[in-house]
Amino acid sequence: MNGANAVAKGVSVGVTGTGMLTISNGGTLNSNLALVGNMAGSTGTATVTGAGSAWAAQGMAVGYHGAGTLTISNGGAVTTSVWEVSIGDSAGSTGAVTVDGAGSTLTGSDVVVGNHGAGTLMVSNGGAVAATTWTSRLGNSAGSTGTATVTGAGSTWTNGSNLYIGVSGTGALTIANGGAVSAAGIVTLAFQASSVGTLNIGGAAGAAAVAAGTLNAATVQFGAGAGAINFNHTSTSYAFASAISGLGTINQVAGTTILTADSSGFTGATNVSGGRLAVNGSLANSIVTASGGGMLGGNGIVGGIVANAGGIIGPGNSIGTLNVNGNVAFAAGSTYQVEVNAMGQSDKIAASGTATLNGGTVSVLIAPGAFTLGGQYTILTAVGGINGAFAGASAATATPFLALGLTYDPNNVYLGISRSNVTFASAGLTPNQTATGGGADSLALGGSLVGALAGLDLTQARGAFDQLSGEVHASAKGVMVEDSRFLREAAMDRLRAAFDGVGAVSMPVMAYADGEPMLAPAATDRFAVWGRGFGSWGQWNGDGNAATIKRDIGGFFIGADGLFADTWRVGAVSGYSRSNFRVADRNSSGSSDNYHAGLYGGTQWGDLAFRSGLAYTRHDISTGRSVAFPGFADTLKGDYSAGTTQTFGELGYRIKAGQTPLGNLAFEPFANLAYVNLSTNGFTEKGGAAALTSQGGNTGVTFTTLGLRASTGLTLGNGENLTARGMLGWRHAFGDTTPVSTVAFTGGSPFSIAGVPVARDGAVVDLGLDLNLTRNATLGLTYGGQFGSGVTDQTVRGNFAVRF
């Protein structure tokens, strides 16, 4: 019937032989009776497919006495208005109905799958079945079998009354992959003594687990036959809300199933062989047996617990109490999984009967937190008494710093947590980790920091030690020692400029001499004032112990100098700069306001130049650290001061190459020596248990630099003069090149932490250009860098000189 319409008193598809019927493309058929596979030995096949295609009858049998198949797909519809839809109607018959696809529907006053024969119903991919009035049945009569599967998102079977799975025969209903079955009345499993009734959520027992479907019914009751509910699914949080009653079997096979209803009327056995069964409601009259890796949990009540080998009992859904209306038994090879936290809470079994402990292991899940070491938790209570003992207790995850122990009294089992003999220092892989661990070892056991560290595994502990170390204080010392160069470079550059040295940097100088305005030479007895601005950004890479530190700095210097004893130029310099530094891997950062003052002087003996100076810098330092690891968090602030004293000197020899294709070229080989001492005052950080105290200390480093400067003057085509200059050198540092801070936790012993090292060897580079804009104005730009030994530090300086 391709798009056609027909009305008939009765329709049989396959009366005595083989018959076929297809209704498609909007065709319709109306009949009183509809029989598919009418007589014994006959075969009938009917298909209703496509939107608008429909078969309406007063009653329908698929497999009446013979073999019948009905497929409803692609939006087709089959409806019975008076009687039932019977699938496998008579003894010896077979019937199969498939309702597939969104919009495909089968509707009857009730649906019987396996009335007297064998019937199957498949609802898939959004198909819908509705039993509007009477009780639907699977496996109705003795000897019959009825199997129904509702699978796929949007697939439904709606029952306006009750649903029986196994009335007198064998019935099975599988709800999977998001399918849904509902019943306005009661769902009954195995009604008569001879019947078998099975409800599968997900897959059948023994089959592979699949995604769960949903049963919407207030009550599921077991009858007098052999009834079972199998939870064999892949969900991690499947909630079964129906109340269960009667005598049958609940099998938890796979997935996590949460029973939320009051099923105290259920008196059968509950078996947990896989996955997890959480009883948040009541199974107060059912003994639950766990074995083979299956876990029982929840905050409700059960009638008894039997933990066989491989079985796991884990009360709560995190920390909670599982009540037992009866006895508890743990066998050898079983596991009692107990979660504890730092607030003194733990999982617990509370039994009204006895607890028989024939071995089994207590596996402890330790929640992050600051534990009170030496604390005790009640993990099992039995009013009827404790018989036997567990084999022992161990942490579920490796916590080498904790020791676990069990104690007993006549009615209780206690779990004790104390500090083990494993030191924190022994966990360190780096010197800083070991030192910090040693500092923590010196603290009293009752402190929150020790309690939190004790609950960590080795990897977590090492990360915690790195955060707790206060490494930023040591690394900042190295940065301040390195940054001392900016002041001495400014003083040296000024002295070279005063004596017209090779590679001298243009800088704003105001001087007064006789005659018209001009740059004051060293020979004048007039007073000169100069200034410089600078900015730099750098990175000192970690060395496997200390982590990488990044720094940026900006500031200025101003100075004044004059002629002394005819051949010497002496002066003073002051300035201000601000540096910011960050150790990202330690969640630490800081800043320093730097106030500079110094004296410098130099002279020239022919081509030999001598330059020297003495300077002091005060540092006002602020630091911030964040410490966070499982069970502990703290924010630390530090404010303290430091001072850098340095003395420096340099010898250079000027070599004039004269006029060359590169201009008027000159060179200056030089040797530079500087000693820098940083003195840091003591401080105490503000914060919690991770706050550090330091008594201060000194860091002394000597720098030697050997190098060559060069400069050349060029005249551009427009008559402007351009000076190109450069410097290349090798710098070596010795002394306290690895800065160290000695700190302590409150109440603990001091320990020393190393910062990222000062570069022992590195290349130093300067490249610059000066352009005479007018007779009295010069614009200069300089790039400087330090490279090597894990250090990259780059500087840009801009200079503008005006001559008066």
From TrEMBL:
Entry GO terms, CC: outer membrane
Taxonomic source organism: Bradyrhizobium sediminis
Residue ranges of every copy of the Autotransporter domain listed in the record: 522-804
Protein name per UniProt: Autotransporter outer membrane beta-barrel domain-containing protein
Membrane-crossing residue ranges in chain numbering: none
Record-linked NCBIfam families: autotrans_barl, rpt_T5SS_PEPC
Pfam families on file: Autotransporter (PF03797)
Source organism superkingdom: Bacteria
SUPFAM superfamilies recorded: Autotransporter (SSF103515), Pectin lyase-like (SSF51126)
